[in-house]
Amino acid sequence: MSPGRPAKPTIVFAYIVRRVIAAIALMFVVSVIIFSIFYLVPRLAGASPETLASRYVGRAATESTVKVTAERLGFYDPIYVQYGDWAKGVVTGAEYDMGPVTEQCPAPCLGYSFVNRQPVWPELVDRIPVTFSLAIGAAVIWVIFGVSVGVLSALRRGSFFDRFAMVIALAGVSLPIFWTGLVALFLFSYRWEIAPPGGTYVPFLDNPFEWAAALTLPWITLALLFSAQYARLTRAGMLETMNEDYVRTARAKGLTERRVVTKHGMRGALTPLVTIFGLDFGLLIGGAILTETAFGLNGLGKYAVEGIRANDLPKIMGVVLVAAVFVAVANLLVDLLYAVVDPRVRTQ
């Protein structure tokens, strides 16, 4: 090791610290953006405090109820004061003086549903396992099948398998999830009775086998779209990587084709997919709206749809904030994984 050169653990630690600080800063920026979308942008578009308050009390509230709610929620305060109160509530909890009683919203207070008279966070906690189970099962399927098909298509470029796989991939990308979900339910659940019908969810700790059986059909339906995308991206990456000079050099050294493909070709081709996977998985954790709605799964996506139908803004905002957190965390994990996949990242 040359004098003055930092030790390898020091470089890695510094890289991790930088990425964590960047993730924290990103979360602050995201919180400002989310608050602006739901509060500042409507005000700039001409919405009144009463209009904002109407999104908290549902569609059946009277005009006097809406006005009182706007006053008690501080919608007449300056926008920076509203953001401070909202951010403080997320961290330390909040209290809502609604007249005869004071509604408590313990930390983390991601909002209080005045339609249901309860905080949003406990409801999100109940639904996160459903969405997480759906996302992780589908992710395993689409990564295995998508990457495998993409690699084989690239190695057999122009063959019948390559053309057939790309046609199926194109169909998978083109077909909407709500259509494939309904068709899958009709065929496999109601006509052939192979899979459980929609709306079935068994917690993993209660019965892992029933948990997997109930989610197999939603997994496959959701993974079909992503598998097609990953197959096409993997194929394109492999075709480009296998023509690189370092791959030809590896072959010239006498390495086996299997070693050339797995160690040199796939490593270079799959590195960009790490970023895409982090974004896709983070977004799915925030709620697979179409899949959950089609299969009647009570996850975060369906919870957001219920909030939209009931004109219940705190529900929608809570789901958006949770989704943003998962995306930021996924990006952080991707950055750290890059340091493992490509050591050059640590020193850049």
Short description, anyone?
With 348 residues, the chain is mainly α. It is 73% helix and 3% strand. It starts with 7 loop residues before the first helix and ends in a 7-residue tail after the last helix.
Features:
MetI-like fold, 2 domains, two-stranded antiparallel ribbon, globular
Structure description:
This protein has about 350 residues and is mainly alpha-helical. It has 2 domains: about 10-120, no CATH class; about 120-340, MetI-like (MetI-like fold, Orthogonal Bundle), CATH 1.10.3720. Helices cover about 75% and strands about 5% of the residues. It contains 13 helices and 4 strands. It has helices at about 10-45, 50-55, 65-70, 80-90, 120-155, 160-175, 175-190, 210-240, 245-250, 255-285, 290-295, 300-310, 315-340, and strands at about 95, 100-105, 110-115, 120. Strands 1-2 form a two-stranded antiparallel sheet. It has a two-stranded antiparallel ribbon with strand order 3-4. Strand 1 and strand 2 form a beta hairpin. Helix 7 (about 175-190) runs parallel beside helix 11 and helix 11 packs across helix 12. It starts with 7 loop residues before the first helix and ends in a 7-residue tail after the last helix. The relative contact order is 0.12. Residues about 1-5 have low confidence and may be disordered.
